[in-house]
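To: structure desk
From: M.T.
Subject: fold request, one chain
Message: Could you run this one when you get a chance? Sequence is below, nothing fancy, just the single chain.
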Amino acid sequence: MGTLFDLVLGADDSLDTLRSRNNLAMSYVTGGRPAKAVPLYKRTLADSERMFGAGHLKTLRSRNNLAMAYQAAGRSAKAIPLLERTLADCERVLGSSHSYTRTSRSNLAMAYRAAGRSAEAIPLLEQVLADCERVLGANHRETKTARRALAILTSEPK
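Reply: Done. Structure tokens follow.
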């Protein structure tokens, strides 16, 4: 069953439909209803993969959005494999220094942390920090955020 956007804007092949479905799903997550976002994000991901291919930035973002909805819904076991695949594809397609690769690495680290896997999160955040310092400089806002996230994670009791 399609959404109202699908009915008004057309079937799966419309960029406007994908964008609208994604925005509706994002509204569900923001509004505290991530479980309602999951089916919308799943469909957007499937359509993105079909329309653009697995390595396209739109597809990478769609996969990340689905993973983050799973994470927000407390379903780390579903989120982590999607985030791992997204990071691997980002590194392959965009390179390790690309801003979206850094975002993907950070998202995976936070999912690992939420799943009680801090030992796996720390090296990811160390790499994010190193990439930020190299690409953006020591005083950039993103670098400071990465430094703070790593400090918080490494100071947590084990």
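Reply (cont.): Residues 12 and 47 are 6 Å apart (CA to CA). Let me know if you need anything else for the meeting.
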